[in-house]
Design the sequence.
């Protein structure tokens, strides 16, 4: 888009070539690479040019890997666990513990980590997170700090600004006598200046007896305590969840203990309160509070169509924490029971009802085991709107999974918690997991689910006991506390070898294979051979094996028939996102360039297509177009071979030729093998030398004798008895005839020969320049 001002003329240039004179430019890039795009704008007087480099990449995947269907996060040797997940606009907010500190993790809509804020307070003090909610752009948390034995030891609550990433307030329970105290729920009251919180305290003196249910009201802006009420039924009572119902009243669910009983008196309870915390009524369910022994809990509930749906677990006939079953009730806003259903997951001991969700066609339960040997087992169960059982599925990973929360979004089920390799849950990592609406994993490479048998029946004779509780105040107080908010890095870990489900263009799972490439290449000359130095990298998530083949070609094997100069092998494993140096010693003659292909054994006939014909080995990659490299062979520093121009010599002249220094070997046309050679005869003489880089060079010289310096005498003269003959040559300055006793003149150009015996006649003639012939 052209954002120039006051411009009347414009012209677009792509890599220096004019492509348009329109105000804005639309361009389709057909090939990958880098492009320089320039815009020249003018108003008729002034002219400006703006240029920008554009990188065009090839998308080798069929799907985007941004969408996270399974992820574990954490740091080494720190016990981490997510307890809640909340949708915040198009993001996810995950709340958990990292060691003793609170972690607030923000993910984008695809599940990618945006940031991780750690809230540090009460260092080295264990904490629990029992409740969280979002009020506009603020996150509210509550829970407890724990004593050295791990027991709940007073309360805390805080308000965190999700936009500015800062703490608004932090409050700590300040009454040291309130052991086993916690806050488990924060309720936003629309158009009011306060929050309602619910939980438990344990005064060690009257009028309460042991733990008591707690209701408090705090100021929204400051967190200061406005009011509080304790509720006592005679032994130990607690709120675990609460909500503001459609009728304008607050309801709290939990476990109440009937009239001073032991664990055999634990009953699932509902209390109705007004906004000032005054009890309207309290009811206990499932088992008679005076005649039956049972240990039953309510854990999660929601309102739908003026009815409550409540989920929990317990032993209906005793006080076991192992021999338990799940229960699910439909109860109207007046506390009347519509129906109660019971479920028992076969083979599972110690079921714990974690969370209840509603969908248009039914309800989902999140269940976890709390008893060894399978405390890491997590299950999702679906029932219809009448509580009729549909299915149960076990969530299975390579590690033990501890799921603590889940919810439904437009893509299915999102679940969070912790994963651990140990059955007792030590050294857990955060987990973020997506499932479809049938609880099937989206990423089946890391997560599997399996159907489990679940026994189901309806409870027809449930108790519904109206009880009266005592209301009192036990001196509950809170105080301001400071904390550090730190932005911490959070490492994404993989609990399996597949990082994501995306596929490459060749169908291979992305990041499930190595990616070999030649990052750099150079050469040096060594004793007649070329030492090629390669920087070979692996740019993906799986190691590249040692002995990966590297093949060298005399020209481009992707465009023409190429001769294989040699195949070599890597000397070591190349780890993910790492590079190694490899050296190849090879003899290459009379080439200016070579092509090098990594992960190629040379078995595919050239020319070949790297995208369609590869791999040639069993080492699979996401793509192969980056496996080829070009090495230019520049021999400018090599010595030159030059015998000089052709020569014309005097007859019988001797010449010495020098092939030059710096070569490894010499071979002359007559078989001579030294650098300097003396030539006695005319003709074409050549020499072939070998350079330090192994190149064979040849040069030749044509040596001819001058015709003018040649003496042309007859080969033989025949004499008769007493006969004399005249013989001579011309064109020379001096003459010398031998033997002198048979010639008439030994220094003349012409002489008379007289002899009676066979004789050899010699003539030597010369010029003033010293050139001579004989």
Sequence:
């Amino acid at each position: 888009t052209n954002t120039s001002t006051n411009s009347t003329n414009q012209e677009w240039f792509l890599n220096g070539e004019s492509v348009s004179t329109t105000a804005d430019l639309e361009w389709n890039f057909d090939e990958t690479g880098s492009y320089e795009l320039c815009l020249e704008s003018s108003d008729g007087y002034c002219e400006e040019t703006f240029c920008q480099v554009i990188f065009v990449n090839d998308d080798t995947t069929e799907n985007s890997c941004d969408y996270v269907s399974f992820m574990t996060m954490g740091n080494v040797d720190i016990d981490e666990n997510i307890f809640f997940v909340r949708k915040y606009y198009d993001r996810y907010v995950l709340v958990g513990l990292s060691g003793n500190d609170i972690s607030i993790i923000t993910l984008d809509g695809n599940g990618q980590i945006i940031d991780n804020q750690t809230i540090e307070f009460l260092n080295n003090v264990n904490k629990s997170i029992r409740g969280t909610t979002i009020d506009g752009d603020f996150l509210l948390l509550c829970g407890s700090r724990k004593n050295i034995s791990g027991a709940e030891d007073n309360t805390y609550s805080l308000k965190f600004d999700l936009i500015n990433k800062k703490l608004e307030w932090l409050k700590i329970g300040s009454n040291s006598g309130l052991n086993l105290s916690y806050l488990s729920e924060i309720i936003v009251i629309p158009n009011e200046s306060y929050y309602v919180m619910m939980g438990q305290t344990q005064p060690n003196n009257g009028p309460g007896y042991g733990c008591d249910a707690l209701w408090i009201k705090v100021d929204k802006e400051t967190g200061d305590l406005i009011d509080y009420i304790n509720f006592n039924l005679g032994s130990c009572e607690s709120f675990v969840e609460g909500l503001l119902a459609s009728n304008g009243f607050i309801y709290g669910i939990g476990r109440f203990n009937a009239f001073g009983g032991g664990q055999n008196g634990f009953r699932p309870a509902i209390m109705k309160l007004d906004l000032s915390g005054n009890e309207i009524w309290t009811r206990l369910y499932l088992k008679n509070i005076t005649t039956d022994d049972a240990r039953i809990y309510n854990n999660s509930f929601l309102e739908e169509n003026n009815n409550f749906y409540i989920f929990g677990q317990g032993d209906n006939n005793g006080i076991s924490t192992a021999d338990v079953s799940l229960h699910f009730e439909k109860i109207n806003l007046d506390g009347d029971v519509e129906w109660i259903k019971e479920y028992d997951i076969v083979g599972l001991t110690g079921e714990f009802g974690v969370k209840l969700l509603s969908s248009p066609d039914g309800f989902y339960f999140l269940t976890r085991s709390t008893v060894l040997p399978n405390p890491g087992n997590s299950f999702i169960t679906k029932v219809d709107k009448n509580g009729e059982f549909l299915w149960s599925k076990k969530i299975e990973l390579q590690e033990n999974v501890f799921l603590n929360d889940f919810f439904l979004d437009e893509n299915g089920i999102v679940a969070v918690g912790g994963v651990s390799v140990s059955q007792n849950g030590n050294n857990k990592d955060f987990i973020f997991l997506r499932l479809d609406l049938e609880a099937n994993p989206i990423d089946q490479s890391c997560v599997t689910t399996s159907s489990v048998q679940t026994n189901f029946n309806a409870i027809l004779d449930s108790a519904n006991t109206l009880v009266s509780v005592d209301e009192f105040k036990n001196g509950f107080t809170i105080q301001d506390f400071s904390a550090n908010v730190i932005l911490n890095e959070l490492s994404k870990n993989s609990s399996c070898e597949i990082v994501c489900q995306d596929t490459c263009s060749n169908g291979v799972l992305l990041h499930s294979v190595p990616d070999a490439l030649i990052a750099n290449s150079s050469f040096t000359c060594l004793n007649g051979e070329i030492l090629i130095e390669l920087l070979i990298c692996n740019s993906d998530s799986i190691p590249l094996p040692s002995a990966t083949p590297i093949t060298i070609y005399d020209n481009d094997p992707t465009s023409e028939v190429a001769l294989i100069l040699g195949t070599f092998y890597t000397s070591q494993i190349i780890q993910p996102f790492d590079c190694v140096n490899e050296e190849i010693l090879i003899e290459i003659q009379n080439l200016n360039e070579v092509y090098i292909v990594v992960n190629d054994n040379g078995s595919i006939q050239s020319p070949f297509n790297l995208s369609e014909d590869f791999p040639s080995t069993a080492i699979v990659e996401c793509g192969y177009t980056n496996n080829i490299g070009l090495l230019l062979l520049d021999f400018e520093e090599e010595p030159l071979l030059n015998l000089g121009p052709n020569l014309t010599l005097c007859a019988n002249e001797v010449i010495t030729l020098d092939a030059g220094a710096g070569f490894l070997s010499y071979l002359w046309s007559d078989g001579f093998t030294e650098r300097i050679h003396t030539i006695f005869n005319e003709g074409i003489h050549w020499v072939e030398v070998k350079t330090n880089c192994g190149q064979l060079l040849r040069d030749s010289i044509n040596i001819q004798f001058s015709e003018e310096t040649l003496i042309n005498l007859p080969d033989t003269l025949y004499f008769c008895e007493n006969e004399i003959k005249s013989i001579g040559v011309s064109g020379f300055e001096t003459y010398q005839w031998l033997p002198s006793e048979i010639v008439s003149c030994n220094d003349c150009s012409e002489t008379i020969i007289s002899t009676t015996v066979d004789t050899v006649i010699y003539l030597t003639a010369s010029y003033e320049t010293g050139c001579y012939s004989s």
Notes: Residues 81 and 418 are 5 Å apart (CA to CA). DSSP finds no helices and 57 strands in the chain. The chain has six domains: 9-56, 175-346+467-476, 351-452, 516-623, 647-707, 717-773.
